[in-house]
């Protein structure tokens, strides 16, 4: 059992990857792994910004590139592909030259939207306090910043 949140049993051996391995997962292990994979995807560094933007309505690749600060074209492409694969984004290609591509949040992503906005607002409100706590911790423990 993991420390902390006891809502989801996590009994997967830390050395074993979620997908693969020789031994089959027990039902509890498969469920915990799936939950972890979903949380990793939607909580990923770039996913939150993309999903928030796409939840406002159709958004194009270049718009996402501008509004998701720091993301590279390659990482944006990979993240969009993964979010589409997971059913969180719908990709629509218009038959124009050059092709016009729009991404829209799916109903399950729209259900997640409020939680993502709450999380990003919380992070914005507390980022200074967290930075100060880190600096104090590093001073106290001699850890370089």
Automatic annotation (TrEMBL):
Top-level taxon: Bacteria
Record keywords, A-Z: DNA-binding, Transcription, Transcription regulation
Gene3D superfamilies according to UniProt: Winged helix-like DNA-binding domain superfamily/Winged helix DNA-binding domain (1.10.10.10)
InterPro entries: HTH_HxlR, WH-like_DNA-bd_sf, WH_DNA-bd_sf
UniProt xrefs under Pfam families: HxlR
Organism name: Micromonospora echinaurantiaca
Protein name: Transcriptional regulator, HxlR family
HTH hxlR-type domain span: 33-131
Keyword Transcription assigned: yes
PANTHER family: TRANSCRIPTIONAL REGULATOR, MARR FAMILY, TRANSCRIPTIONAL REGULATORY PROTEIN
């Amino acid at each position: 059992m993991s420390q902390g949140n006891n809502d989801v049993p996590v009994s997967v051996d830390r050395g074993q990857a979620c997908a693969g391995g020789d031994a089959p997962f027990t039902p509890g292990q498969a469920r915990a792994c799936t939950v972890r994979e979903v949380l990793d995807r939607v909580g990923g560094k770039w996913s939150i910004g993309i999903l928030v933007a796409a939840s406002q309505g159709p958004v194009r690749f270049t718009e996402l590139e501008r509004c998701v600060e720091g993301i590279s074209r390659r990482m944006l492409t990979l993240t969009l592909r993964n979010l589409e694969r997971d059913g969180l984004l719908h990709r629509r290609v218009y038959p124009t030259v050059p092709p016009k591509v729009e991404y829209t949040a799916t109903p399950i992503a729209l259900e997640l939207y409020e939680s993502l906005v709450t999380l990003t607002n919380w992070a914005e409100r507390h980022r200074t306090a967290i930075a100060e706590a880190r600096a104090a911790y590093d001073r106290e423990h001699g850890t370089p910043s």
